[in-house]
Amino acid sequence: MSSPRVLLDREDVRRALTRIAHEIIERDQGADDLVLVGIANRGDHLARRLAREIERIEGRRVPVGVLDITFYRDDIGLRAEAPEVHETRIDVGIGDRTVVLVDDVLFTGRTIRAAMDALTDFGRPACIRLAVLVDRGHRELPIRADFVGKNVPTHRDDDVRVRVVELDGDDAVEVREGAPASAGALAGNADDAGEVRA
Amino acid sequence: MNRHVLSMHDLTRDDVTRVLDTAGSFREVGSRVIKKVPALRGRTVVNFFLENSTRTRISFELAAKRLSADVINFSSSGSSVSKGESLKDTALTLQAMGADAIVIRHSSSGSPLQLTKWVEGHVLNAGDGTHEHPTQALLDLFTMREKLGRLEGLRVAIVGDVLHSRVARSLSFGLVKMGADVTLIGPPTLIPPDAPTWGVQVSYDIDGVIPKLDVCYMLRVQRERQRLEYFPSVREYNRLFGLTAARAGVLPEGALIMHPGPMNRGVEIDSDVADLPQSVIEEQVTNGIAVRMSLLYLLLGGAGPSGSAGDDVEASRA
Question: Which residues have C-beta within 8 Å of that of residue B309, sequence separation ≥ 6?
Fold first, then answer.
């Protein structure tokens, strides 16, 4: 694999999140009844930052939850090992509120499908919106984002990674060009498994 | 992880940590509006209980249902077992019906192991004779770790009828594996002669041990498994080995009182002691569901070693 190409650096990420925060508020004319739910393992950190930004702009605290979608994945039982489970914590009721799902990369859409299924087990939101830092295309389900940090054309085999300060020491979005599609793409390619979430 | 869970020896230290960590996530599921996740949709779990049980059977049933598995409950009365069908024939029938996992409780030690020779699905031991009860040990470890923050170095006494107790065996093996310091306490007649080989200490004097404990784990006096001559009288047993209010008062601040249930109030544990705030007996039951969900998920949530999906998927999760 080639060395990674930086799509967004730290400042780009900051600006993108600031803009998304403004867009979220603009869409619903304020931050009333808003709940941000980040998808583990990077989306939750982005959700917390969006909440801080919204609080700075609106002077209003927005509740933040974290959602692990492992149990709702559509490839459970297809992988050799049961996928690792992360924390889920949504401390506020989401019934009749506007829930903004936050994730780092939007790819096939399967993660978002799973996240919507998971959310409905917590209640019936008034609506669910989607905010992502990067949309890299190649959707496999009829899903689109409401708020996008950056649209990035990619090859299906590319590996798009988001780094966040909280876990990785810095903020960045990087892409590694993938090898040409191999014969055993479904089974063998390590990217594939990650992409299911992305 | 091992394909079957028959004994705590089937789990490595890392396996135990993984089961407990995953159980933490499943406990959160139990607090949701809809206490159910689709993780095991389309899988079939058979609860095959050939010995009486309330909490373990219900706990396994709830665990499997909250994972969206199909659950079949099966006991000796009301089935062909009461017509004299052998364990093997019953097992082959369950196999033919496509059970992905069989949870078995049996009064004969070793029957879960025997079952693994006949069926292709995963076998989980829910208590076999006086051998082991690994899921009870796991839920006890979970409860201790959650309440006290660690397992390594914990000072735990397991008190009572160790000889007949599969719980005591599994819990001792589990605690020793996780680096805790275990003392078995009971009348000499009820301490198995090979206990020192488990890596535990043995004492016949509860009062000498109690002031230094982090956990005081009381075992049920299993009258159904004993003949009478193991100790002279219930009153004497209570006086010498029961957790009385006076003894509970000597436990260090923050120490836990645990019991696997069902309790004989007034025998191994005084009634008001069982209801003290430091007694976590009900939490053990609640945690049992999460721990069993975790185990079922980790065993059945993958395609197994023959599965074709990538191995280092975790590393690449973006």
Answer: A75, A78, A79, A80, A187, A193, B303
**B157 and B202 both lie in a single domain:** yes
Q: Do residue B147 and residue B260 come from a single domain?
A: yes
Structural domain that includes position B43: 8-132+285-304
**Tally of CB atoms within 10 A around B264:** 18
> What are the pLDDT digits (tens) for B23-37?
999 998 988 888 999
User: What is the per-residue pLDDT across A132-172, written as a single tens digit (0 to 9) for each?
Assistant: 999 999 999 999 999 999 999 999 999 999 999 999 999 99
B133 is catalytic: yes
B102 and B21 belong to one structural domain: yes
Instruction: State whether B303 and A80 contact (CB < 8 Å).
Output: yes
Q: Number of structural domains, chain A?
A: 1
Residues B186 and B221 in one domain: yes
Kindly report each contact of residues A19-28 with a partner whose C-beta sits within 8 Å and lies 24 or more positions away, as own/partner.
A19/A149, A20/A50, A20/A131, A20/A147, A20/A148, A20/A149, A21/A50, A21/A53, A21/A54, A21/A57, A22/A57, A23/A147, A24/A50, A24/A54, A24/A100, A24/A129, A24/A131, A24/A147, A25/A54, A25/A57, A25/A58, A27/A129, A27/A146, A28/A98
Instruction: Identify the residue among B17, B19, B33, B67 best suited for mutation to test binding to A, counting A beta carbons within 10 A and taking the highest.
Output: B33
A70 touches B at CB < 8 Å:
yes
| Beta carbons of B31 and B306 less than 8 angstroms apart | no
In the DSSP assignment, the letter for residue B252 is P
Place of tokens 């301490």: B191
Annotated catalytic residue within B17, B22, B27, B55: B55
pLDDT at B173 over 50: yes
Greater confidence, B15 or B33? B15
Q: Are residues B28 and B108 in the same domain?
A: yes
Which residues in B17-31 are b (16+ Cβ under 10 Å) and which e? ebbbbbbbbbbebbe
Mutating which of B14, B29, B313 best tests the A interface, going by the most A Cβ atoms within 10 A? B313
Identify whether the C-beta of residue B25 lies closer than 8 Å to the C-beta of residue A86: yes
For chain A, say whether B25 makes contact (Cβ under 8 Å): yes
| B14 contacts: CB under 8 Å, gap ≥ 6 | none
pLDDT tens digits along B21-70: 999 999 989 888 889 999 999 999 999 999 888 889 999 999 999 999 99
